[in-house]
């Protein structure tokens, strides 16, 4: 797998992101992944975020070091693979100033038809946009 991440977003944690121990709460990292995915999607999806045709099916998050107020988290992401009706993404979260690894994560999204409430094939247009953003052909889902 490549170590290249074609997009990153810097996030400065807010006070409300922290827990009683003074560092970013573990649940907040899922929101940080979402913020980065939203930026990725905006690169090619112009009809509005409310019409994005996918739902999250899996989120895997490994926390490596705590983040405190005043630190900035860089969330990098890439699409790793694409199948008939799903795609997988990887994320690397680091603290900007030190470069310290904060977390890494993986998600699986399923393309979804909200009208029929069923999964659907990944549209060819979306497949092509992923390839353009990634700068490479994407393999199928790993076994």
Automatic annotation (TrEMBL):
Gene Ontology MF term list: fatty acyl-CoA hydrolase activity
CDD domains noted in UniProt: 4HBT
Keyword annotations: Hydrolase
Cited Pfam families: 4HBT_2
Matches recorded under InterPro entries: 4-hydroxybenzoyl-CoA_TE, HotDog_dom_sf
Family statement drawn from the similarity comment of this UniProt entry: Belongs to the 4-hydroxybenzoyl-CoA thioesterase family.
Protein name: Acyl-CoA thioesterase
Organism expressing this protein natively: Eiseniibacteriota bacterium
Lineage of origin: Bacteria, Candidatus Eiseniibacteriota
């Amino acid at each position: 797998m490549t170590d290249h991440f074609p997009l990153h977003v810097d996030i400065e944690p807010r006070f409300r992101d922290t827990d009683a121990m003074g560092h970013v709460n573990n649940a907040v990292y899922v929101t940080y992944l979402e913020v980065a995915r939203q930026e990725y999607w905006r690169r090619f999806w112009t009809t509005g975020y409310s019409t994005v045709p996918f739902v999250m099916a899996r989120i895997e998050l490994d926390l490596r070091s705590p983040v405190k107020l005043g630190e900035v988290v860089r969330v990098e992401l890439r699409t790793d693979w694409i199948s008939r009706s799903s795609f997988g993404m990887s994320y690397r979260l680091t603290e900007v100033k030190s470069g310290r690894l904060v977390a890494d994560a993986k998600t699986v999204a399923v393309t979804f038809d909200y009208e029929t409430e069923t999964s659907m094939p990944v549209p060819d247009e979306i497949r092509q946009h992923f390839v353009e953003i990634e700068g490479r052909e994407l393999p199928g889902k790993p076994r």
